[in-house]
Amino acid sequence: MASGTIIESVKDAIAVASTIMESAEKEILWLLPPAMLVFGAQYGLDEKSKMLIEKGGRVRGVTAISGTYRDIVRKHLEIGEDVRHVDQYRGAFMLVADKRESISSLNVSIEDLSLDDRVVAFWTDDSSYAEYLIATFEDAWKEAVDAKKRFQEL
Questions:
Q1: Nearest by Cα to 108 from 50, 39, 20
Q2: CATH of the domain at 139
Q3: Share of the chain above pLDDT 90, in %
Q4: Fewer beta carbons below 10 Å: N end or C end of the chain?
Q5: If DSSP codes are grouped into helix, strand and coil, which group holds residue 2?
Q6: 146 has a pLDDT exceeding 80
Q7: Cβ 37 vs Cβ 69: under 8 Å
Q8: Phi/psi at 120 (nearest 5 deg)?
Q9: How confident is the model at residue 113 (pLDDT cuts 50, 70, 90)?
Q10: Quick one: pLDDT at residue 153?
């Protein structure tokens, strides 16, 4: 079992994600409910992605894109992230940086998410656990459709 730390609130999960993103040098992968993209923007996570991309890094993400969240996804595309849409979002979230450091949770209610909500997330710098998450992300990536195509459908 990978060693790490349990994170217990949305606010703390975003703070940990911020630290992970700051440490990234090559790639960030994320699978997030769209509401967390809004919170992430409030904490400057999109700026951290932009800085990584400007240094030659890559950021790929999967989320559920609806009319409500179209603008936040468009902002991620404008900074150079590669984003895809998945219809059947199942409440998991993950963020992995450079195949080594990650935060993840398997059961997040995406309805009425707030910063003070309780969440059980797991942070680790165990590369074996990161590989597991990456395999899960790649499966979601293959099933998802390009965000621009989704915009045309809306």
A1: 39
A2: 3.30.870.10
A3: 63
A4: N
A5: coil
A6: yes
A7: yes
A8: -110, 105
A9: low
A10: 87
| Containing structural domain, residue 51 | 5-153
Closest CA to 30 of 88, 78, 79, 92: 92
Domain count along the chain: 1
Residue with tokens 């992300």: 137
Residue 110 pLDDT:
56
Tell which residue, 139, 32, 36, 9, has the closest CA to residue 91: 32
3-state secondary structure 53-108: HHCCCEEEEEECCCHHHHHHHHHHHHCCCEEEECCCCCCCEEEEECCCEEEEECCC
